[in-house]
Amino acid sequence: MSPGVPFHNLKTEGLWHFPFKIYSKNTHWHRNLKSTVVYCTILMALVQRFTSTVSAQHTAGGTYDLISGDGTANVLKDIATVQNRDLMEKQQLNSLNDRLEDLIGYLDGLEAANKQLSDDIHSLIDSWGITGENRFRLLQDLDQVLSRLKDTNRNKIILNVESKIFDEQAEILNRISAMYMDVLNLYQEKYSIIKDLQGELEDEFRKIQHRLQLSDEQVKKLDQDYRAELEKFRQYMIEWSKIALEKQQIVNEIQSLKEQYNLKMALNHEEILEWQRLLQRFSHDSTNYYKDSLETIKQQIYNDYEQMAKEQHLEIEQTLKTRLSEIQEKVSRGLPMSDQGEQKRLEQSNRFESKLEESQHEHDHWNNEYRRLLEDTQRKRRQLQDLESEQNSQQQKDHNQHERLKQTTNTLKEEYYQMKDELDRLAYSLRFSVEEELKIYEALLNSLHRKKDERINLNQRRIITSGSTTIEQQEHDRNIPTIRIEEPNGTNRWQFDTLSRHSSTQSGDKDRLASTSSNYAEQYKSKTDMEKYDFEQNITDKNKTTTTTVRQFIHVTPQPVSHTLSEIDEELLQKKVHITRKYKGTILIKFVDVSGRFVEIENMGDYPRDLTDWYIIRDVDGRRFEYNFPVYELEQHTSVRIYGNYHRPSNDITNEPQLITKFHDWGNGRSMETRLYSKDNKEKAFFEQTIRE
Length: 693
Known about the structure:
Layout: H1 28-68, H2 72-128, H3 133-333, H4 339-401, H5 410-466, E1 474-476, E2 482-485, E3 495-499, E4 505-507, H6 515-532, E5 536-537, E6 549-552, H7 568-575, E7 577-583, E8 587-592, E9 598-603, E10 609-610, E11 615-620, E12 623-628, E13 633-634, E14 638-643, E15 658-660, E16 671-677, E17 683-691
Parallel strand pairs: 2-5, 14-15
Antiparallel strand pairs: 1-4, 2-6, 3-7, 7-17, 8-9, 9-14, 10-13, 11-12, 11-16, 16-17
Helix pairs in contact: 1-2, 1-3, 3-5, 4-5
């Protein structure tokens, strides 16, 4: 370390360094004074080093003893105490440093005084005129005096240092004793805690011994109960041996019943095969018969109408040419019109009316033929239903008869149900083929009737142009279909649709059309009007006030729709049904068949919707039907029909999206409610059907 370093920057270096300079003097006492000051400084530094080392060792030892214990709070408290003590020691050292700086300043003053004194002594000796040996002797005496003073001062300094060291040691011992007392108190607290824990463990041990005694008593009691139960079990074994003998007898009886069951199953199988042969022959004969008769009737109708049209066209053309030539000849001659010409025109009109009546009779004939075919179809359907009812009754009898053997004849029951399913599939396939044929017949007859109406209208227009007769047809729409749109004011945006069926009446020449043909025309017109016009009525109730906006809505260019005419009784049933519908969102129940054949779901949104895990619940007069959607995505602006297993259509007839349920059909009754739920169990649509009296 350099002599010029300030003292206050050298506190942490372990030794104190005094920034004084050593002057080279010839006097011996001056050197002794300097050495004395340096010696004092070294002693003070050693004292500081010793006190710091002892304090650090004591602090580390006390801290280790405290940390080794479990009293964390006491350890933290002692650490804080030691830190405060170190801070106080640093303050004391700072004060000592200040005092030492004052001492150094005082020594500098003494050094200056010493120098002045030396100069004065030398000047005094020179003034005295002391030279040579006397001067040497005088300086030697002065050195002896200085040496004695140095020894005296050294002894004083040593005594002061020893006293300070003793004070420091005493203070260290006091600190160690205080720490020892703290550790002793800590150990006493731990001893008391251990003693309390020992008492608790002894109490727990006594409780465990008590529970052990109780468990031994329970084991003894259970041993006695076990011996008693073992004795009972021996008695039960004797009884079970008797039961085993009885069981063997029952098994023998079951075997005999199984043989009887196999015999009855063989008889049932033969009966089922006979039914299958009858059904196949019935289906094949009816299909061929209706196809041949339909082709024959169709060809006859085409030939008759072509011949009739040609004859009427030629006759009318010839008559008009003859009449025109006569009129032109009379006009050219200037002759007046005679009553004979009027008579001829009346005769011609009578002939046309007679031909019209003949066409009407022919139309009635074909209408009667259609009715006969319809009755024949219903009769065959009733026969098929009778066969199905007989089959179901026979199955129910067999099921009731063999219910007692349900647990022991599982394999035989599986075979029975397999045969039953095969018979159901055959019956369903026959039912579907008959229904498809009926749809084809209805569509063909519908086209024939439309062509016949067109020909009649053509003949009427021709008669009107000739000026002989005039036939007027007026169609009055008594009930104009409307859309009632209601904009709800609340947040609940349910839309309610109340649908009622109205058919427009068609008026014409009552003498020309028979009653049956007029009914048929009204039914067909009603169906086409329902497909041509959209009829909706939206109603919302907000605080018992209803605001309704009514406006007419009609398709300007109706899309061509393929029709399948239903039976007359079903059409009448549809007219008596009152429908209420509501929906929330873009998925709704578009229509539900009254007879329970299908439920139609529509997506009115602009994006496809995933209907996976959605489900439908239908309540029919207390009966409940539930259907869960499979993994299915419904495209935008499309609908899907969910058919019952009995009524599912063939893929060759229709290409519409369809799903099939596992149950027979959706059921029918007087009060029918159908609800659509999403996969998070929220109701999305509601469709109610009520049959009026």
